[in-house]
Design brief:
Helix content: 25-40%
Strand order of the largest sheet: 6-9-8-7-12-10-13-11
CATH superfamily of the largest domain: SPOUT methyltransferase, trefoil knot domain
Radius of gyration: 22 Å
Distance between the termini: 54 Å
Shape: elongated
Number of helices: 9
CATH class of the largest domain: Alpha Beta
Length: 287
């Protein structure tokens, strides 16, 4: 059984099984530098790659059929059946495999939580042209959001409410930011996510007959007064500046969340979650 093998036998088994795409890599290897940059969000990332570690998160890559570029292995830590099963599924999909020492692996992963698995995957971006309005009836548009954790929270809430797609415009942070991956709890691999210019998004929404709902503290209608029927696009604005002026004067409607204390608004992640659950409950017929 693989997990009971010596380190030398594990290495030999992987090299023999995956000839042509498996290599031994040291701490100065390009893939290690790349993995560190992804984990720390320190370099440009035109390929939209993400670093994923551990059994649970790696399992989501497999579940949602995310493209795998590289798998980095600490074979000493592959010592449970679950880790072995996830490893073999990743290796079958990977373009390249790197076996490293435990010391090198600790340079890129959180000790104790990674189970010897670090994967560089291709973030599954979608496009407006890939969305089908008949299937993607409820869409959230994130306009100029700056804080990765807020974006990740909204993505997770979209999964929880079965919201159909997310469109990001006026982008201020990378969708591949590690905090988005962590705060979304892997939902970013499931829900279609599009990055597009604001004018193109507005044109597409109007062409496909979406009702556009702006979340605006100056709105006259409360969010619980909306029926959320048909195709709807819920627009959430920047943490600092709110929704950009491009969204006004296009015939959009506006909704707001009542504030009963001294604060004039909620955190955008909390606000989006409230509205998305209201929409989901209304659309399900539960209320």
């Amino acid at each position: 059984m693989f997990i009971k093998m010596s380190l030398e036998d594990k290495e030999r088994t992987i090299r023999d099984t995956y000839k042509g795409k498996c290599r031994m890599s040291g701490k100065n290897a390009a893939v290690i530098k790349h993995a560190k940059a992804l984990a720390n969000n320190t370099k440009s990332n035109p390929e939209k790659l993400v670093g994923v570690e551990g059994i649970w998160a790696s399992g989501l890559l497999i579940k949602y059929d995310v493209a795998i570029k590289s798998v980095i292995l600490d074979l000493e830590a592959i010592n449970t059946p679950d880790a072995y099963n996830i490893m073999t599924a990743l290796l079958e999909r990977a373009e390249e495999i790197h076996i490293v020492s435990s010391a090198t692996f600790k340079m890129i992963a959180e000790v104790g939580t990674s189970a010897g698995l670090f994967t560089i995957a291709k973030f599954p971006m979608s496009k407006l042209g890939y969305l089908n309005p008949k299937e993607h009836e409820v869409i959230v548009v994130l306009d100029g959001l700056e804080i990765p954790g807020n974006i990740g929270t909204i993505i997770r809430s979209c999964d929880g409410t079965d919201t159909d797609a997310i469109i990001i415009c006026n982008r201020k942070t990378r969708i591949t930011h590690p905090k988005i991956l962590r705060s979304s709890q892997g939902s970013c691999f499931k829900i279609p996510i599009v990055e597009e210019e604001t004018d193109h998004v507005i044109e597409w929404l109007k062409k496909n007959h979406y009702r556009i709902l702006l979340t605006d503290t100056d709105a006259e209608k409360f969010f619980y007064e909306e029926n959320y029927k048909g195709r709807i696009a819920i627009i959430m604005g920047s943490e600092r500046y709110g929704i950009s002026k491009d969204w006004y004067g296009i015939g959009a409607e506006a909704i707001k969340i009542p504030m009963y204390g001294d604060c004039d608004s909620l955190n955008v992640g909390i606000a989006a979650t409230l509205i998305l659950y209201e929409a989901a409950i209304r659309r399900s017929g539960a209320r």
